[in-house]
């Protein structure tokens, strides 16, 4: 597979070819053309297979054939996953339901996954991780407890994160344990790692708030240090709580890097969501989040929903071509971000790159659900 598809007809490019590319090899212009034709065909399937989506398109006057730009693709507000069944494949093909964390009013999003979608998401995540880790298998440290994998536990974004990032694991260690509903250090495991796995190539994963409030605090109090040959920590989520604690991303990276005896650039914050499983937007060495070939990000003005220019804060819209089982083609989030640039990041990765700013101050949107419901006819 070549590193780019610029020599091929835009109409002939398939999703499989896009996912097989090096994830940051396409220019923004080429990617937009490739994705547009794929997404338009996916919209037709979604419209035929889901009444709510058909109602939405009808009420908004959506003519799929007339769409000329990715910015014109109809987006779904992320809270609609909490209110509606957005499945676009037959019920019997669903193999699992992914539940979000349910931060909005305690109601989780429910994301239906079929086998094809799950495989696409695994391939996509593997491609992203390889860009940061290479293809060599490593020791994988999970800064969470092993119980999140139990069959009786709901399949959550937390579980999906661990399973997804374990792609390159040759051995997995869980650094926390859960007792009576509380998390604490799994000291026997940590001692085993320090004594027997120092100077190995290692990567780790955890949720930012858990790492800071449970893992880091206890590790610091115990004066424990890890020393590995090559190390990366992928972490995400929880920045609203971290903001409440007055802990910035820079402070977090510096302090966590200290206990792993590594540089701050190896503490990699990523932005992702249950509704777009398989895609994580990881910090590069310049602190920018890059968008892989099978995805796109648009920043929209929160008042007009027009596309924001570079450098202006707005709502993050995430696009994808990975899902066959639910509408992931365009999801408008409740997060604020800012587009930093296009095709010119000093790290060398092509395409758009952005930064996460904050969660939106909570206010319940009104009228969105009515657009999905059937009209009285």
Structural commentary:
- The protein is of the alpha/beta class and 377 residues long.
- The protein has a single domain, classed as Rossmann fold, CATH 3.40.50.12780.
- The chain has eleven helices and 16 strands.
- The chain has helices at 15-20, 28-49, 51-59, 80-83, 115-133, 157-165, 187-196, 208-221, 239-244, 249-259, 368-372; strands at 76-77, 94-99, 110-114, 138-142, 169-174, 176-179, 182-185, 201-207, 230-236, 267-271, 281-282, 289-290, 295-300, 313-320, 330-342, 352-359.
- The strands form four sheets. Strands 1, 12, 13, 14, 15 and 16 form a six-stranded mixed sheet that branches.
- A hairpin with a 2-residue loop joins β6 and β7.
- α2 (28-49) packs across α3 (51-59) and α8 crosses α10.
- It comes from Methanospirillum hungatei JF-1 (strain ATCC 27890 / DSM 864 / NBRC 100397 / JF-1).
- Residues 17-374 form the Acyl-protein synthetase LuxE domain.
- Pfam families: LuxE (PF04443).
Stretches where pLDDT is under 50 for at least 5 consecutive residues are: 363-367
Number of strands: 16
Q: What percentage of amino acids are in beta strands?
A: 15-25%
Task: Please name the CATH topology.
Answer: Rossmann fold
Q: What class, by secondary structure content?
A: alpha/beta
Please give the alpha-carbon distance between the first and last residues.
52 Å
**CATH hierarchy class name:** Alpha Beta
**CATH architecture classification name:** 3-Layer(aba) Sandwich
The portion of residues assigned to helices is: 25-40%
Q: Based on CA inertia axes, which overall geometry fits?
A: globular
Q: Can you say what the CATH homologous superfamily is?
A: ANL, N-terminal domain
